[in-house]
Write a structure and sequence with these properties.
It is a single chain. This protein is α+β, with helices and mostly antiparallel strands and 323 residues long. The protein has three domains: 147 residues, no CATH class; 87 residues, no CATH class; 29 residues, no CATH class. Helix content is 38%, strand content 25%. The protein is built from 13 helices and seven strands. The chain has a seven-stranded antiparallel beta sheet. A hairpin with a 2-residue loop joins strand 4 and strand 5. The longest helix is centred in the last third of the chain and has 17 residues.
Length: 323
């Protein structure tokens, strides 16, 4: 899905990055709505205020802000413009066509794209419209402002959250490419020792969010990182790391059970047998299989065996009801 999204963002840029040319312009309100079969959710329309060079609303080529998208067969008859387009980003190729109708105070149009991504067929349609707001603007200044907003890292609480924006940093020609070293250094530092960063990195690599591999672009040794983070496995991060650290998780469960079993009281005659039975997990569930026995046992109060706890409960009932 990530490469699909990368292609989508590329094509969005072709019509919403109307600030790509430094020239005197005017403000427009641009709304885009996209549909893509197979998406697990409907993508909401996006509306933004942009600075379009004067007259640029009549020429789709001048509103294109991404060099990976090439237009051809651009034709204008009256107030209607049609074109064909090819977008090539990291080997993901989409082709399509579009049309746009311009009025005195605005424009509206639609595009259709198709192609393959990750070996799978992909289709997408997009409807867009623009409304002239007026007021002069400097399109170059708008580019700087938009980049500043996109590349602002102040709202990321940690490296784990920053990973979600890696596409803005690591993609070819990315808007925030100047953050590459800072970003990669942070991931290299935190992933081997912080379970949240490690989990975020793994999720990103599995789904390739943003169409780019952080591990590849930052030259990360994922095996070494995994070995390092697994050494930190403890009660607090067990849930996050157990699936990635099976050997360490098994030792952790065994140690937890041993501490629990050693804290119980046994009769002198059956201590060895009862301790062995406790360690095997059989007394918790006589019919449990090996996988169930490996689970971390629920803690019991130290120094009390199950029979002692039952006896204590019976005494309380006897005192309450007088039998």
């Amino acid at each position: 899905m990530s490469k699909h999204l990368a292609v989508i963002l590329t094509m969005l840029a072709c019509f919403t990055s109307a600030t790509a040319f430094a020239a005197p312009g005017e403000y427009w309100e641009v709304t885009t709505r996209m549909e893509m079969p197979g998406m697990p959710f409907a993508m909401p329309p996006t509306t933004q205020k942009v600075c379009i060079p004067k007259g640029g609303e009549n020429d789709p080529e001048k509103t294109s802000g991404d060099k990976s998208c090439k237009m051809s067969d651009v034709k204008t008859v009256g107030n209607k413009t049609t074109w064909k387009m090819r977008c090539d980003r990291d080997g993901e190729v989409m082709t399509g066509s579009g049309e746009q109708t311009t009025s005195a105070g605005g424009y509206k149009g639609k595009m259709s794209f198709s192609g393959k991504s990750g070996g799978q067929d992909m289709n997408m349609t997009s409807e867009f419209s623009g409304k002239r707001l007026g007021g002069s603007c400097d399109s170059e200044e708008q580019i700087k402002k938009a980049k500043s907003q996109m590349c602002d890292t102040s709202h990321y609480r940690n490296t784990a959250e920053w990973i979600s924006a890696s596409g803005l940093i690591l993609q070819p020609g990315a808007a925030c490419a100047d953050q590459r070293k800072q970003f990669c250094d942070a991931v290299k530092k935190d992933a081997p020792r912080d379970e949240k960063t490690f989990a975020s990195l793994n999720q990103h690599e599995q789904h390739m969010l943003g169409g780019v591999s952080v591990a590849k672009e930052c030259k990360l040794d994922m095996a070494a990182i995994t070995r390092s983070i697994c050494k930190t496995l403890n009660e607090k991060n067990y849930r996050e790391l157990s699936a990635h650290c099976p050997a360490e998780a098994k030792i952790f469960r065994e140690n937890q059970r041993r501490r629990d079993c050693e804290g119980r009281s046994y009769t002198a005659e059956t201590r060895a047998a009862d301790f062995k039975k406790c360690m095997s997990g059989q007394e918790d569930n006589e019919d449990s299989d090996d996988s169930a026995r490996d689970e971390t046992p629920a803690p019991r109060k130290p120094g009390k065996s199950p029979s002692a706890e039952a006896l204590e409960g019976a005494k309380k009932l006897k005192g309450m009801f007088g039998f």
